[in-house]
Write a structure and sequence with these properties.
Rossmann fold, five-stranded antiparallel β-sheet, globular, endonuclease activity, hydrolase, endonuclease, nuclease
């Protein structure tokens, strides 16, 4: 496909819409994937695009950002005071009072010289040169004076009703009458007083986001709204929303000539979609061409033959009716005639069927088929979405009859940009099918002779998803990560920011290449997790989930991603983890060695250093083993922000009794790696555990030693040739693995991670309480 930079949406900025207070979403030239943990703002983003670009009639009061509700109610209080002092010349209501709380979407398009005529209605100045051009869509009061009068009249009516009740009943009734405040008023009258308006933006006033917070430009007081929809004729928009299941697939809506609500088109079944597609693009009765004449001739022949048969069958009945005196001499005579249209053949339950494969060569085999509702939901959903994409493409390209009708109109021209929104395509789809779909979706939108090599007609696909399988298939540069900012950082309630993942590492950085390759070869759960755990090797990867399940119940309820990356490479993910704002625990090894020499059993006072790159260069940036062994917990972490940090967990000293003698005393043991740390934490278990490999070597080492130092040396020697993954599997095969004691350094790390997520949860609970207070 020919690369071109023409006629595409470069980015959108969403403000004051639900939890998206001020965010910028950069759109890739082809497919953009919106990812993030649950409740991070992906759905808000898709709904914002849908509300502003597809159907302006969907707005409700809950689309206003929660933190602005108090401000909106304050506007109501100010209007109330204005009404009470109106005779004294109080301040008059103005739309400027609302400017900081109104939901907006700024659409910035890259426009080239040959496309200027398409954007003439939104040119900022006559001196504008091809490049970025922007338009703001704002949900705002239509006529502020009428709005003010109705609101204050409703307040007066409520006040008078209470006064009349008090006079008649002799007491004050504690009844809440509408409207209690401005938000209460808007709950009933929002659409009567608000509508979408469009404004031209100034490309010279574009500002980069600061710490992930977009900086949308402020409209001048003299800004005038543009009549109609400025995107009409420029962008064709379709959508597949998340609430479709398979029986509620939406064909989407297109940018119309006005900003008013557009009619919903619901398609219940695949057969309905096919019938609609046939009617719009293939029906030979509609604007027939030469190729349709043969089909029309066959239909007319069938219709004439059917009419003759009907006349024969109904002749006796018509004679009987005639015997009743009808029709009379002057009455019209009855005639029975048929009207056959091709779409009638698809207007039944079995219009779409799935044919069953039969064994080749079977004698007397009859082709078998099932109705569409008998197939699996996943297959139905896949076929439905693929067919919708084909329908969107052909509707945009005016394929078939729709094209002939459109071209008969004056000033017919294809929109240069086709924007398709898909929300959570993974519903009912198996993992492999999800990956196939996202790989092929954009290609389906471009599968038309006039699109494949087109430098003028552009398609952009925006997909929101919770699926790590879909994220895995996307290009790293096309991911947009939605990060939830807690109330302590954002203000009254949590809001979201958007991270353009392609910009996390910068360009031409070796670390960036590693992160991309690593995530593509493992999985992308990282983009949907509440927290991350980076582990050293396969033994930790297998056993730490077991530790969490049996010893950290609240942590077990969270969505954690566990990545096996090793101490030599964990630090390479630092930029990504920092931008994602994930609480991260790095479980790694002490890896002590002689300076400039080989690995060595840990020991104090020997001048040993760590061979672990994570410990040396990331957290805690300490090389000396003696310092690492005594480092306080506060220095084993680095904070990203108030609620995000990375903490490292490596082997720490532990007190043990190696000998079973009655006079045995506790000694300090210094583990080297995870496996010997697990042994030191569970000496009595491994002392009596039968097995092979490392299990057997560890048992023999415990039996042959009486001091912690000797046991440590023996374990260190055994680990040089032992199979660690096999050891982890042997441990999991224990009769009661839940009885394992977690090594102290891992237990402390998991407890810290648990506290971080609990703190985040409290932020959410407090924010929800604040939201209830604002709503009240």
């Amino acid at each position: 496909m020919v690369e071109n930079k023409r006629g595409h949406i470069q980015f959108v900025e969403v403000s004051n819409f639900r939890k998206l207070k001020d965010v910028r979403i950069d759109l890739a030239e082809q497919t953009t994937l919106l990812v993030g943990a649950n409740n991070s703002g992906k759905t808000s983003a898709m709904h914002a695009l849908r509300h502003f670009l597809v159907d302006g009639g969907r707005f409700g009061t809950h689309d206003f950002t929660l933190s602005h509700w108090h401000t909106i109610n304050e506007i109501g209080e100010a209007w109330k005071k204005t009404q009470e002092t109106e005779a004294a010349g109080g301040p008059q209501p103005s739309i400027d009072d609302w400017a900081k709380v109104l939901p907006t979407v700024d659409v910035w398009l890259q426009v080239e010289k040959g496309e200027v005529h398409l954007v003439r209605s939104i040119l900022p100045t006559l001196a504008w040169k091809p490049g970025l051009i922007g338009v703001r869509l704002r949900f705002e009061p239509k006529k502020i004076e009428e709005f003010y009068r109705e609101f204050t009249s409703a307040l007066i009516a409520a006040r008078d009703t209470k006064a009349a009740a008090k006079e008649q009943l002799g007491k004050v009734l504690n009844v809440k009458l509408w409207p209690q405040n401005m938000m209460d008023f808007l709950e009933r009258r929002l659409r009567a007083h608000f509508s979408l308006q469009a404004y031209v933006l100034d490309p010279t006033e574009i500002k980069l986001p600061i710490n992930g917070i977009a900086q949308p430009q402020i409209l001048p007081e003299t800004a005038l709204a543009i009549p109609g929809n400025p995107l009409y004729g420029l962008v064709r928009i379709h959508e597949i929303n998340a609430q479709r299941g398979f029986d509620n697939a939406s064909n989407g809506n297109e940018a119309g000539e006005t900003m008013a609500a557009s009619p919903r088109k619901e398609t219940r079944k695949l057969s309905d979609q096919l019938r609609s597609y046939y009617a719009n693009h293939l029906d030979p009765f509609d604007a027939p061409d030469a190729r349709d004449l043969q089909a029309l001739s066959a239909i007319e022949g069938a219709q004439d033959a059917f009419d003759e048969r009907l006349l024969e069958c109904f002749s006796s009945a018509l004679k009987e009716v005639a015997g009743l005196g009808y029709p009379g001499v002057s009455d019209p005579r009855l005639k029975i005639s048929t009207r056959i249209r091709p779409t009638d053949g698809m207007n039944h339950e079995a219009a779409v069927q799935y044919e069953i494969d039969m064994k080749a060569g079977s004698a007397g085999a009859v082709a078998l088929s099932l109705p569409e509702h008998s197939n699996g939901l996943g297959y139905q959903n896949l076929v439905s979405m693929v067919f919708q994409l084909m329908s969107f493409r052909d509707a945009w390209m005016r394929v078939g009859k729709a094209g002939k009708q459109a071209r008969d109109k004056d000033n017919f021209q294809l929109e240069p940009l086709h924007l398709v929104l898909i929300e959570e395509p993974e519903a009912h789809l198996h993992a492999q099918v999800q990956q196939v779909f996202i790989r092929k979706a954009f290609a389906i939108l471009r599968d038309h002779p006039d699109l494949k090599e087109s430098g003028k007609l552009r398609s952009q696909l925006v997909v929101s998803t919770h699926s790590s399988h879909i994220a895995h298939e996307a290009e790293f540069a096309n991911l947009r990560y939605f990060r939830r900012l807690p109330a302590s950082v954002a203000g009254d309630v949590p809001v979201s920011t958007v991270v353009n993942v392609s910009e996390v590492f910068g360009k031409g950085v070796e670390t960036s290449d590693f992160a991309k390759r690593y995530l593509r070869t493992t999985h992308c759960d990282l983009f949907f997790a509440d927290a991350a755990i980076l582990v050293e090797g396969p033994a930790e990867r297998m056993l730490i989930p077991h530790f969490i399940r049996h010893h950290h119940d609240s942590l077990h309820q969270c969505y954690l991603t566990l990545l096996e990356i090793g101490g030599a490479h964990a630090h390479r993910l630092e930029p990504l983890l920092k931008h994602l704002g994930l609480p991260t625990l790095v479980v790694t090894d002490l890896d002590s060695k002689v300076p400039g020499g080989e690995a060595s059993q840990p020991a104090r006072g020997q001048g040993l250093v760590t061979n672990n790159t994570t410990l040396r260069s990331w957290v805690p940036k300490v090389s000396e083993v003696d310092r690492l062994l005594d480092l306080e917990p506060a220095k084993r972490l680095v904070a990203f922000d108030d609620l995000s940090a990375v903490r490292v967990a490596y082997q720490l000293p532990v007190l043990v009794k190696v000998s079973e003698a009655a006079d045995a005393v506790e000694e300090e043991a210094l583990p080297y790696t995870f496996e010997d740390a697990l042994v030191f934490a569970n000496l009595s278990l491994f002392r009596n555990l039968d097995g092979t490999g490392l299990v057997r070597k560890f048992k023999d080492a415990i039996a042959a030693t009486t001091t912690a130092a000797d046991l440590g040396a023996s374990l260190f020697s055994s680990l040089k040739t032992g199979k660690k993954a096999e050891f982890a599997l042997d441990v999991l095969a224990l009769e009661d693995p839940a009885g394992l004691t977690v090594p102290n350094y891992i237990s402390e790390g998991l407890a810290w991670l648990e506290s971080q997520l609990r703190k985040r949860q409290m932020e959410v609970i407090e924010a929800d309480a604040k939201a209830v207070e604002l709503e009240a």
